[in-house]
Design a protein that fits this description.
The protein is of the alpha/beta class. The longest helix is centred in the first third of the chain and has 20 residues. The strands form six sheets. Strands 13-14-15-12-11-17-18 form a seven-stranded mixed sheet, with helices on both faces. Strands 8-7-6-9-10-20 form a six-stranded mixed sheet, sandwiched between helices. A two-stranded antiparallel ribbon has the order 1-2. Helix 11 links the parallel strand 11 and strand 12. The protein has two domains: 274 residues, Aldehyde Dehydrogenase, Chain A, domain 1; 192 residues, Aldehyde Dehydrogenase, Chain A, domain 2, CATH 3.40.309. The protein contains 17 helices and 21 strands. Bound molecules: adenosine-5'-diphosphate (ADP).
Length: 505
């Protein structure tokens, strides 16, 4: 079929509710109402598989952020939200999960259209993880509790601690898992009793703004508890991070912007949590089960077009298995079906934007210039205007190269062989990065696996697997990969203050 006709056919297959949503134009949720931007600015939303504009969304500027923050402030300070029982709050958080599950197919289509990811991936990963995050967190609402310490003071006292919501939270999310990132932010904050202003990424605002619409239609949140907007980083993200009425900012994105967020938060010393970049190593020992390691490393490297902060971007394999592993991984990579995300047979979609394609392609060029070999990939799709780059593996690399040191955030990975090194030496190489988000280790020797788990400085270690996520598993970074943890009970800590109460008896 002609490429253009094929693209049109795919967009024509979108669910009627999604077509209506795109035609009517997505809106912000501010103070319980669906509204447009005060200054009237709009952002083009493109399908990365075709580079065509599919709709426009309002562009928030500081006045929209201010309105959203004031509404969240009022809802926190005066509203029924803070007086609600924990059980009622938990039920509402659970309801957000039900809304997403009920509209799962529509959300999968939106994620694919907006971000480019294969719809099969959105159906299997993004959407279930999103609703399961709300289901998981909702249960915590009734389990948040203080303690009764025993102070050794000279007078008779009774002391206890209270866990209280931190207040108004600004949340800024990236474009790689748009709905899932919204869920990871909203679920713990609301469960803790905070009110929220969430800013979706300008490149992928559609699923968060659709959730906003469904919240108005199908949930009974008091006005101001959840506000959802989108806009550019400087125009909308920065005013949110700086706003004096915001008590806490939670950010996921690049380490570079994470540092700007920290600076912006100093005005009122708001609490900050950050989930930032990564450069995950995946280490294959000589005794690894290659039948599992080959598909595992391939998935680790190329899932979500490699636009994942925990992507397996640095492959280290023992010299005795290096060739066999890389033959297998490069064959699997070359067989990945690259195509429009909305095509159910596509196994990898385009990168999110023209800028991102240019950035990532720049790294392939830099790798070539620094002497790396392109084992497979390194080129786009013929006859397509979309932002495609085939899965790319670079070999003949060393630790001085930019492709080994810097986060690429695309389907480009670097493979290196190691000799009979001590575990400490190997761990030092794995840790030779400013990041510390994730790592995976492939071996059948349980002792080696757990020794490596102890030695690697990263928030997530996968043994004989990669990319296993669950709402119960804390997720976050060592070093410049961030502050704090998402998911698990740890995520609630990001949104709670502790108060010590002491009474002299
Ligand atoms: P990525 O590399 O994933 O695009 P960014 O860190 O650039 O990551 O963007 C992640 C999010 O941060 C987006 O929502 C973006 O709009 C926002 N952002 C970018 N710059 C700023 C800034 N200076 N202040 C606040 N938010 C920002």
């Amino acid at each position: 079929m002609d490429k253009k006709v094929e693209d049109e056919t795919l967009e024509a297959s979108l669910a009627p509710a999604i077509k209506t949503y795109l035609q009517n134009g997505p809106k912000f949720l501010i103070d319980g109402e669906l509204v447009t931007a005060k200054a009237g600015g709009m952002i083009d939303v493109r399908n990365p598989a075709t580079a065509q504009v599919v709709t426009k969304v309002p562009e928030a500027r500081s006045e929209d952020i201010d309105a959203a923050v004031k509404s969240a402030r009022k809802a926190f300070d005066e509203g029924p939200w803070s007086r609600m029982t924990a059980a009622e709050r938990g039920k509402l958080v659970y309801k957000l999960g039900e809304i997403i599950e009920r509209h799962a197919e529509e959300f999968a289509q939106l994620e694919s259209l907006d971000n480019g990811k294969p719809i099969s991936e959105a159906r299997a990963a993004d959407i279930p993880v999103s609703y399961n995050t709300f289901y998981y967190m909702a249960g915590w609402a009734t389990k948040i509790a203080g303690s009764t310490p025993s102070p050794s003071v000279p007078i008779d006292v009774h002391s206890y601690t209270l866990r209280e919501p931190v207040g108004v939270v600004g949340q800024i999310i990236p474009w790689n898992f748009p709905l899932m990132m919204a869920a990871w932010k909203l679920a713990p904050a609301l469960t803790a009793g905070c009110t929220v202003v969430l800013k979706a990424a300008e490149d992928t605002p559609l699923s968060a703004l659709r959730l906003a619409e469904l919240i108005v239609e199908e949930a009974d949140f008091p006005p101001g508890v959840i506000n959802i907007v989108t806009g550019y980083g400087e125009g909308a993200g920065a005013p949110l991070a700086e706003h004096p009425l915001v008590d806490k900012v939670a950010f996921t994105g690049s380490t570079e912007v994470g540092k700007l967020i920290v600076k912006a938060a100093t005005g009122n010393l708001k609490r900050v949590t950050l989930e930032l970049g990564g450069k995950a190593p995946t280490i294959v020992f000589p005794d690894a089960d290659l039948d599992r390691a080959i598909p595992g490393v391939t998935l680790g490297s190329f899932f979500a077009q490699g636009q994942v902060c925990v992507a397996a971007t640095r492959i280290y394999a023992h010299k005795s298995v290096f060739d066999k592993l890389m033959d297998g991984v490069s064959e699997a990579a070359a067989n990945i079906k690259v195509g429009p995300g909305l095509d159910p047979t596509s196994q990898m979609g385009p990168l999110v934007s023209a800028d991102q394609l240019q950035r990532v392609s720049g790294y392939v060029d830099a790798g070539r210039e620094e002497g790396a070999n392109v084992l497979v990939g390194g080129e786009g799709l013929q006859d397509s205007d979309g932002y495609f780059l085939k899965p790319t593996i670079l070999t003949n690399a060393n630790s001085d190269m930019r492709v080994v040191r810097e986060e690429i955030f695309g389907p480009v990975v670097v493979a290196q062989a190691f000799g009979d090194a001590e575990l400490d030496q190997l761990a030092a190489e794995a840790n030779n990065t400013e990041y510390g988000l994730a790592a995976s280790v492939w071996t059948q020797n349980a002792s080696v696996a757990h020794k490596m788990a102890k030695r690697i400085k990263a928030g997530t270690i996968w043994l004989n697997c990669h990319h296993v996520f669950d709402p119960s598993l804390p997720f976050g970074g060592y070093k410049q990969s961030g502050w704090g943890r998402e998911n698990g009970p740890d995520a609630l800590e990001n949104y709670l203050e502790t108060k010590a109460v002491t009474m002299a008896l």
